[in-house]
Amino acid sequence: MTTHIESEEHKALRSAVAALGKRYGRDYLTRTVAEGKPPAELWSEAGRLGYLGVNLPEEYGGGGGGIAELSIVLEELGAAGSPLLMLVVSPAICGTVIARFGTEDQKTRWLPALADGTRLMAFGITEPDAGSNSHRITTTARRDGADWLLTGRKVFISGVDIADAVLIVGRTEDARTGNLKPCLFIVPTDAEGLQKRPIDMELNAAEKQFELVLDDVRLPADALVGDEDAGLLQLFAGLNPERIMTAAFAIGMGRYALAKAIEYARDRTVWKAPIGAHQAIAHPLAQAHIDLELARLMMQKAARLYDSGDDVGAGEAANMAKYAAGEACVKAVDQAVHTLGGNGLTREFGLASLITAARVARIAPVSREMILNYVSHQTLGLPKSY
Ligand SMILES: Cc1cc2nc3c(=O)[nH]c(=O)nc-3n(C[C@H](O)[C@H](O)[C@H](O)COP(=O)(O)OP(=O)(O)OC[C@H]3O[C@@H](n4cnc5c(N)ncnc54)[C@H](O)[C@@H]3O)c2cc1C
Questions:
Q1: Which residue from 249, 167, 256, 281 is spatially nearest to 214, judged by alpha carbons?
Q2: Is the CA virtual torsion 298, 337, 242, 174 positive or negative?
Q3: 3-class DSSP state for residue 193?
Q4: 363 CB less than 6 Å from ligand 1?
Q5: Which one of 363, 370, 378, 382 would you pick to mutate in the ligand 1 pocket, going by the greatest count of ligand atoms within 8 A of its CB?
Q6: Phi, psi (degrees; rounded to nearest 5) at 288
Q7: Which one of 64, 77, 164, 209 has the fewest beta carbons within 10 angstroms of its own beta carbon?
Q8: What beta strand segments (E) does the chain contain?
Q9: What is the pLDDT, as a whole number, of residue 177?
Q10: Which of 33, 132, 208 to mutate to test the pocket of ligand 1 (most atoms within 8 A of CB)?
Q11: What's the mean per-residue pLDDT of the chain?
Q12: In degrees to the nearest 10, what's the CA dihedral of 300, 112, 217, 172?
């Protein structure tokens, strides 16, 4: 009997998404970025084909799969040069949290639309004065009759301009003790009191990042997703998929850059043999390939654990997968640019802009150092410095 790392269904999904990615590819993305537009055509077609909601429950219009399937979709679109960053957010974080903890009404209202891509939800946790320390977030919800009033600031929130709502991580003000608890609110992007300002990023990407100011944004009682006392558990139900999907994003980008470099190194000849024959060029590309393959294995492990309901096991693996994929992507892109010599820095070959893009996977949604901290403390039992 042959053992397969990937099932026949997964392989079929991979090649079907790769075919879609190929039809759009890097040229499509470059064009949409130049026009300052979101990749709406690719998003809609992926939605129609069922790829955006492949992880969401079938009874709400999804594919009934998990993060394993959704990560294949993002990796393959990325490998084709046209990744959809909002897959990390809309179906993976928001869709998962609503599917697991939402009310029947929230599920019917959001899941089918998130699955077919007709509606999109952004996710906001990062704050200017909290950063990596999300325990310090101060966006606060207070009750006003049956409503909530939400006040605070968020930064680097992706895709707010193309989203119908943002899933905001805030805290409730506990009337008795004054303690604050994390909880999740669906905030419509056109809500009164919500201001959005695009942040000028050095990123050649179709999705923009925003600063949000929430000034007493009035929300109905049913804007709260899940239980106001179960914040952390619900939050991590969304954050682990986010890490796994960021790994997929990074692996896809790394594969794209590596493929370009290999193609170039096979042909480009300045001495007797193509430059790819020199081991100084070939070995780093081989190492980049190995690192990407290893990162994918860890991503598959994390997805398998998460999809089987092991939130704790998935937490460690998702962190490790995000770390490994981020590092593998940064190295693959760097080596790809170097392989092309001067052409690595031309717009025509389009690799130089990936240097900045690859760094996103090292910083977001949780930085390389914070993952090393997590593994030092949680896995190795070492003491904390902070
Ligand atoms: C392109 C992009 C898209 C993003 N999209 C979203 C989004 O949609 N929603 C959202 O909520 N957020 C989003 N973010 C924000 C992202 O999650 C944060 O940038 C990230 O969590 C890091 O926070 P920070 O930028 O405040 O860095 P800081 O927390 O200020 O960290 C700065 C540096 O210090 C290091 N550091 C901090 N603490 C420690 C420590 N204890 N030990 C060692 N080193 C430490 C960090 O590793 C990092 O290198 C996005 C960011 C980017 C760049």
A1: 167
A2: positive
A3: coil
A4: yes
A5: 363
A6: -60, -40
A7: 64
A8: 121-124, 140-144, 147-158, 165-173, 180-188, 194-198, 209-219, 224-225
A9: 61
A10: 132
A11: 95
A12: -50
219 has a pLDDT exceeding 80: yes
**Torsion, CA 294, CA 297, CA 303, CA 306, rounded to 10:** -90
Return the ∠ at Cα 120 (arms to 115 and 123), rounded to 5°. 115
Token duo for residue 306: 């998460």
Question: 7 — phi, psi (to 5°)?
Answer: -70, 165
Question: Above 80 in pLDDT, residue 3?
Answer: no
Is residue 353 lining ligand 1, measured as CB closer than 6 Å? no
Q: What integer pLDDT is reported at residue 162 of this predicted model? A: 97
Banded model confidence at residue 101, pLDDT cuts 50, 70, 90: very high
Residue 283 tokens, joined: 């070995």
Return the amino acid letter for 190: D
The tokens for 141 are 């919800």
Task: Tell me the CA–centroid distance for residue 131 and ligand 1, in Å.
Answer: 5
Q: Which amino acid, one-letter code, is at 277?
A: A
Clarify whether 76 is annotated catalytic: no
Domains of the chain: 8-119 (1.10.540.10), 123-225 (2.40.110.10), 232-379 (1.20.140.10)
